[in-house]
Design goal:
about 250 residues, alpha+beta, DUF4294 domain-containing protein
């Protein structure tokens, strides 16, 4: 009986925390069984679900987004947490901690690839990927500036390409490096952090050729999980041996 009344009043509880417009979009977003990137499938068309997420990101307050991040299903939580990331929310790290060891998995579709993953893995991966987005945005800006400086803004090359070069990021490289370092410490300070999280950390820093000051903690996880990926990174930290890694 208690469960019945809880389910009966659940929509009312949500409505009290979300504005009518946000609540309507939230209900639509909740109907999707998976998280989708902006462009999906072989033809790269724009995801209708992602469009709903973008609408929420434009009109929802921080408190509304945090409410969804706390109470939604795994896919809506991930959408909300990526909104918080895009806003440089100070709550992002707290939510990362809360989701680090959750057993909930979710289906994610990026491009034409569908896989099962976790919220924490996707959040960490998105933070790491932002650095490349910053580099791409910087390259596009410099290219446009160079074309204008050389009076080529009316050339077919510039006119045909300029609208396609629309990469944006509100982050700076040093900010992402700092956030990555803090997330690293969160992962490695928890002895129960999932193997996949520690492996992603090790793979990324090996790929970047960075020796981070977490050797003892990484050694602990290498012993715990007997992971070849963590072992490769430890060898790099010890001896400078950089074996190739792949992000499958």
């Amino acid at each position: 009986m208690k469960t019945f009344f809880f389910l009966l009043f659940l929509p009312i509880l949500f409505f009290g925390q979300l504005s009518p417009k946000v609540n309507k979009l939230y209900k639509q977003l909740s109907q999707s069984e998976r998280y989708e990137s902006k462009n999906i499938s072989i033809d790269g068309h724009e995801s209708e679900v992602y469009k709903i997420n973008e609408k929420i990101g434009k009109i929802a307050s921080d408190d509304e987004v945090k409410f969804i991040a706390s109470n939604g299903n795994p896919s809506t939580k991930l959408y909300a947490l990526n909104i918080l990331f895009s806003r440089k929310s100070k709550s992002f790290e707290k939510f990362f901690i809360n989701n680090l060891n959750t057993k909930d998995s979710l289906k994610v579709m990026k491009g034409c690839v569908i896989r099962m993953t976790t919220i924490a893995f996707e959040l960490y991966q998105n933070v790491l990927a932002e650095k490349q987005i910053i580099k791409q945005a910087d390259w596009e800006r410099k290219w446009k500036d160079s074309m204008i400086a050389n009076h080529k803004q009316n050339s077919p090359e510039y006119q045909n390409i300029k609208d396609m070069l629309n990469t944006r990021s509100i982050w700076k490289t040093n900010e992402i490096d700092s956030l990555t370092s803090r997330l690293d410490q969160i992962i490695l300070s928890n002895p129960n952090s999932p193997k996949v999280m520690v492996e992603l950390l090790a793979e990324y820093h090996l790929y970047e050729g960075l020796k981070v000051p977490y050797f003892d903690k990484l050694a602990f996880f290498e012993r715990k999980y007997k992971s070849e990926y963590i072992d490769k990174y430890l060898k790099f930290c010890r001896y400078g041996i950089k074996e190739p890694v792949s992000f499958d």
